[in-house]
């Protein structure tokens, strides 16, 4: 078996590689804005959520608050 480089595979599949810069915090301002909103909202969980149902409930509350 012979592997191809990521760039060659992307080109073969017709996928445009990302032009973003790795490790640059302001590369995607929309994502960064959402993360800041999440972190500075008062009920932001400081510890990991107990399970998937608790996480879903937290996200549902966030969406309701945001809209």
Automatic annotation (TrEMBL):
It comes from the Bacteria. SUPFAM superfamilies: Ribonuclease H-like. InterPro entries: RNaseH-like_sf. This is Integrase catalytic domain-containing protein. It comes from Methylomonas albis.
